[in-house]
Structures are given as structure tokens and as C-alpha cells.
Amino acid sequence: MRINVFAGLILALSTGLSAAMAADEPELLLGNGKNKTVFSYQVSNTAMVGAALYYPERLMKVYEGCEISAVSIDLGGATDTDSMRVFITSSLTGTPDYEQRCTSTKAGWATITLDTPYLIKGQALYIGYELKGVRFLRYSNVLHAGEEWVNKSGTGWQLFTQPYSASLYATVKGEALPRQQVARQHVRMPAYVKKGQPLNYIGQVVNLGLDDVETLTVALDVNGKEQQRTEVTIGPLPNRTQGTFEVNSFTMPEEGSYEVQLRIAEVNGKDDVYKDDNISRTASLLCKEQFLQRDVLMEVFSTEQCPNCPSGHQTIASALDGKPHLIEVEHHAGFYTDKFTMPESVEYEWFYQPYNIHAPAVMFDRTNHIDNYPDYFADSVAITSVKSTLLTDIYQEELNTPAYVSLEMKVDMDAATRQLSIDISGEKVLPIADEDSVRINVWLTEDSLYTEEQRGVSGGYYHRHSLRRCLTSTWGDKIDVSQPFSLHLTTELPANWREERMNAVAFVACRDAEDKNNCRVLNACQERVAMMPLAISDVQKEDAHPGTTRLCRLSGVLTLPADAATLRVYDTAGRLLYQLEAAHRQVVLPEGVYLLQMR
User: Fold this and answer.
1) Do residues 331 and 467 lie in contact, with contact meaning Cβ atoms separated by under 8 Å?
2) At 542, phi and psi to the nearest 5?
3) Of the given ranges (99-113, 229-243, 246-260, 579-593), which has the lowest mean pLDDT?
4) Are 151 and 93 in contact (CB under 8 A)?
5) Which SS3 state, helix, strand or coil, does residue 128 take?
6) Exposure of 208 by Cβ count < 10 A (0-12 exposed, 13-18 middle, 19+ buried)?
7) Considering just the CA atoms, what is the radius of gyration of the chain in Å?
8) Mean pLDDT of 558-584
9) DSSP 500
């Protein structure tokens, strides 16, 4: 039976001055989602349809002896007369253990008080409802994971696989309600650590018990055995609220490869009454004395036809410009094509999910980070949308991932013949699962390609680090990493390519034509094709278009162009250095990289 990781269980106190505080008996809500409905699931309005939540026997043993007194549902509209029924049962087929019929005359939350409170005996239960006459079932965001079912057309129950939970809960009363209970939610698990250095774990929990959560005792299980534990402060965390904890005290004393889990061992110094949902996923961890630092390959998908791409590039620049180990390559694909599109870039659209090819989009080291960052990788592939938090988080995640191969590259250019010579060498430094899949890729990129056809901007626009040529095959050339490898390539640059803006990019990656999530980049490197600065005359003639911003390398006297009112000069950190205008038209610049802004 498939478990839906997005739908599940909530045990909650009422908000404000809760009924549990006002009544003689403690009270919790046995439900599945957060209060606010955010999604309407279309169903047949001429058949009996409904939703049901499943709670396993081990969990319901915790509530044995308590009573379900009411069921509340957020309804999508009025129902047919007496067509609505709430039910509690150990099986979705056959006669339910308890059911009660009623009618709803309007949309919104409705609470059905049970004529006879249902005594929980510790067996597995389905709690749900069926009704007729509505076009939509209402769902909310998930607070805790579990199993959930839906009947959308009157043809029978099916597992619900959408990333939401039914807006549905049961009121449970009794003296046996759990006081200390949390459920582990997402935990960010490191995959590499240096011997003796602290591991960093960040996790979320939701409080499902009556008492506020003040502390958690967190244990690190290594190869199935507890190795270390520590206490962290998280609260006070009231019932039905989520909290984040961070652990930095665990270390690995010896080199090796390990299977690790993070486990909530205690809540407020006491045992959790239900431990099945306290354990993280199992993650592989590699510990060594030292790792080789990698450079991070970021592939950006962006075209002239994409009106949102300029703002996406601004987000990238704000988050990542100046990062010392970042290699950026722009593919003119993802949203139609343009005059700069390379055929290989279109082939790389294979990394998208076919139903969601879009731009702007980014891909870091061709790696899907859904395990640690599920919110960023909803499509379950390495390509994802441009977000400032994603850019910084995933860059750091990849920076913390060591290189699996070393890479060195030397680039020489004959200025007279425009012949480019590239020599690359390297060797394996960490074990690679499938050495036969390893390929080397060598590209040429050119920065600041000028266009006046970019959608989403007025005036001119400069494309960043655009792919100009693949010197290896589309998916790379096979190399033998069981021994040191080397590669020599030559090519001739067209006369209209600006070599001082160009880079040679090499990277080694796995290639799996059947699995787009098994193509991880093992390391990358980048070298400039030519280091000579742009002449001031070149800037004035070609690069200083009014209404644009331009990054370039300069040396010498910079003069305000005749058709510009102002010219601002910034350093690469964004600090204003000079402003040229009518009263001050020239400045002498030492050799360096500057950002020019024309008005």
C-alpha cells in the first residue's frame, strides 16, 4: 500500500482559549491538515464522493479508551438532503463501525456532533465522510504526513496522492490523551563530513501532544545503533504548531562510509508515546580526513523570448555574483529559442519534466536535491525555478559536496590565427559507483552578448555567460577514471567573438540516458580564454548603450559618451566609485572589472 508523504495526521488543540482548557476532560483534534483550505479538488456532483484519513493500529493504541465526540468538515457547498454521512470504521468496504447522516445547507466548516460518542478500542481506523451534490472537496496544506483516501467519482476509494490534506478533523476527548508526542517532519541530512568536524542537522517537528514542547532529546543512529545523543531547546512549542531544531554537536571519530538516521528520543525529557514517526530517512554519510574542494556548475535556461528572464538574472546576480567557486553557463532554451541558441542546449531540456519546461530556470551540478530541499524540487528533477533562497542554499549545498575527480585546465590562444588550444588533466579522488558512465564535457562561453530583442526590458540587454560552442559531444566524451586522464582540444574562434569575454568550461559528469537524476557533475573548472582588457574606445562604440547596465574589464581614460546624460561606475561589490556627467566627463581607471550604468 502506497504511503502519501504529503498527507497525514494532525493532533491539535483549539486555537485561543481552547475547549480542552474549558472542559473537564482534555481534548485534541485528530485531523490531517492546517486550518485554512487552500485547494479545491473537483469531483462528481451526481455521485457519492468523499475523503477519509487512515490511522494505523500502533497509533490508535495511544488513544485507546478515549472517545471521538464530533467530526468537522470544510464543505464546498450545500449537499443533497440527508446525503452526507460521517463515518468511523476499520475498513472502507462493508458496513462501517459508526456512521451518522446529515444535510449541509451551505459551504464552510460544519461540525457534526456524534449522537453516540465513539469509543476508541486501539484498532486501526478510517475517519471520513461521503456526500452528494458538491463539485469540489476542500483540502488544506499538510501539517503531518500519513495515509489518505479519496472517492472522487462514486466508483470506489483510491489513495490520495495530491500534495494536500482533506479539511477534516475529529474531536477526541479522554484522560488517556498523549501529553508528550511529536512527529518528525523534514530533516536536512549532510552527506559528507571531515573526521572530527561537527555535523549539521536541521529538522522540523510538529507537536501532537497536550503539553507544550520545551526540549527534544535527539539521537544519532549509525549503522542501526545509537552513537550519540544531545538535548536541544525548541520551545515552548504549543500543540499543533511546528518548530525547527538544529544539532551541531555530533561528530564522526573515524573515516568511513556510514548509514545514519536522526531520531527524536525524548520530548521534555520523557518518552514519546508514539515513536514510529520520530525517525528521519536513512542517509549515506562519507567521512574523511580531507576532501578536494569542487567548483559548482550552475546552468541557467533563459531566452530572448522570455519576459521574466531579465528579472531572473537580476536575482542570480544579487545572490551569487562574486562567489569564488561558481561557474555559470546560460543555455538559450527552456522558453522557445533565439539567435544564440545552441542545438546542445535544446537537447539539455531533457533534464526538465516534460510537462513543465520553463524559463528562467537553473540546475546546479545536474543534481536533484529533493531529499534535503523538497520545496525547491517539486518536479523531482535537477532543474528548478529561480528563487533567491534556492540559489544561496543549493550553491552552499554543492560547495559542501566534495569533488570526485580533480581537474586542471590550461588555455592558450594565438591572437594572429585565433586558434585556441585547451589541455585538461585530472584523476579520480573519491570512489565513483559507475565508472563506465563518466564523461568529460568542454564548452566555450561568452559573457555580455548584446541584444535589443530581449522581452521584459526596454532598450538593450546583455546575456550572461552564454554557451557558444561544445568542443565535445552533446553528452560528453567517455573517459577512463580508473587511471589519470588527459584531453587535448583545439578550435578556431570566429572573428566576431570577443575572446576577452570568453571562458573555457570543463566538467566531468555521469551520464545515464534512462535516469535524468543520475547525471551528477563530479567536478568542474573554468579558465579565461584571454585576459586583455577592453579598450575604452570599444566600450564607447559597442558597450555603452544608453539605458543599459554593463559589466566589463577596463583600463585607462573613460569618457562619458555624447549620447548619455550620466555614466555611473561601480565595483563588483556594487559600490559606486564614480559618476560621469556634463561637469565631470572623464576619469582614469586602473585595470579591473567594473559595472557601468548608462543614463
Assistant:
1) yes
2) -115, -35
3) 579-593
4) no
5) strand
6) buried
7) 30
8) 78
9) G
